[in-house]
Amino acid sequence: MSLTSQELGQLEEEGYLFFPDRFSAEEIRVLRTAAADVYAMEREEVWRESSGVPRTAFAAHTYHEAFRRLGRHPRLLEPVEQIIGGPLYMHQFKVNAKVPFDGEIWQWHQDFGVWHRDDEMPEPRAMNIALFLDDVTAANGPLLFLPGSHRLGVIEASHDTEETSYPLWTLGRETITKIAERGGCVAPTGPAGSMLMFSSLLVHASPPNISPLDRSIVYLSLCHVDNHIRRFQRPEWIAHRDFTPVEALDDECLLELAESLPAHAAE
Ligand code: SIN
Ligand code: MN
User: Which of 57, 66, 70, 169 can bridge 157 by disulfide, Cβ–Cβ 3.0-4.6 Å?
Assistant: First the structure.
C-alpha cells in the first residue's frame, strides 16, 4: 500500500508517520512469543540493563525465524522503499524490551547522528520503521519525538557511556529545550500492531517504564545500499556489514508460524 500525498507531506513536515493497527492480533502473538524466546537467550546480542533484565535483542532477525520473517515483511519494507527509493539493506534490527518496573531510559538522540559518527554512514538516506508488540501508552515508556527536528541536520552531541548500559551520542538539555520551544514534544501511542515510521534525523528519547505493563517494540533501520557504512568499529550485530538488498516475503509470512504455536502462547 503506497503512502498518500498527505502522508508524504506529513512525513516531510513532522519527520514521522503513525499507522494504527497494521498487524493482526495473530501476527502479534507470533512476535510476542518470539520476543520472549530471544529475551531468555544468553547471547552477546541480547543486551541487558545494569539490573540484568533484557534491554535490547540486537540482530534477532539472524537467529529467530519469526524475526527473520519480520525483517522481510512487505508491510514494513514498502513504505521505506517508497521514501528512500530502494534497494535497502538492514543497517540495524532491534527488539527493545523496556520491561515493567525496570525498563530504563533512552537518552535524547538522533539515530543518524550515531550511525554517522560511529559507523561512517555517509548520508541520512536511512529510515526507521517500528512495530509495537504491546499497547504503547503514556504509562509504559513510549517514544518521545521532537516533531520537525529532522530538518535541523546533524545536531551537536556528546558521547554518553554512563547513563545507560548502551553508549550513545546524546543531545544536551539546552538543545532539546530550544527545539521543543519551536515544535513541541509528542509521544505517539497506540495499540499493539501499530507501526511508526520515522526519519533517522528525528530527535527522540524514551522515559523509564515504571508501570507494571510490558512495552516491546521492534525497530528495523533500513539504509540505501549505496549509502552503506564505511567504518566497522562496532560489532557486526549492532551495525551490520551485510549490504545485500532485503527482498520482501509475502504478506502472510508470519501467519504461517501461528499454526505451530500453543493456543495460549503470549496472549
Ligand atoms: C531507540 O531510540 O532506538 C529506542 C528507543 C526505545 O525503544 O524506547
Ligand atoms: Mn534511536
Answer: 169
- In the chain, what percentage of residues exceed pLDDT 90? 91
The residue-averaged pLDDT of 78-94 equals 96
74 φ/ψ angles, rounded to the nearest 5 degrees: -60, -30
Q: What is the CATH number of the domain that holds 244?
A: 2.60.120.620
For residue 217, tell me if it sits in a domain.
yes
Q: Cα-flanking dihedrals φ and ψ of residue 17, to 5°?
A: -140, 140
Ligand nearest to the CA of 105: 1
Quickly count helices (H) and strands (E) in the chain.
7, 12
Q: Does pTM top 0.90 for this prediction?
A: yes
- Binned at pLDDT 50, 70 and 90, residue 264 comes out as low
Please give the Cα distance from 242 to 221 (Å, whole number). 13
In a domain, 14, yes or no: no
Q: Which domain holds residue 60?
A: 25-258
Taken as a whole, the chain contains a residue count of 267
In a domain, 1, yes or no: no
**Ligand 1 atom nearest to 204, measured from its CA:** 2
- CA 216–ligand 2 middle distance (angstroms): 14
**φ and ψ of 61, to 5 deg:** -70, -10
For residue 159 the three cell numbers come to: 558521547
Q: What value does the mean pLDDT take over residues 184-208?
A: 98
Q: What angle do CA 39, 47, 208 make, to 5 degrees?
A: 85
Q: Is 35 among the domain residues?
A: yes
Total structural domains within the chain? 1
CA distances from 162 to 50, 144, 156, 165, 170 (A): 11, 21, 18, 7, 11
User: How far does the centroid of ligand 1 lie from the alpha carbon of residue 251, in Å?
Assistant: 26
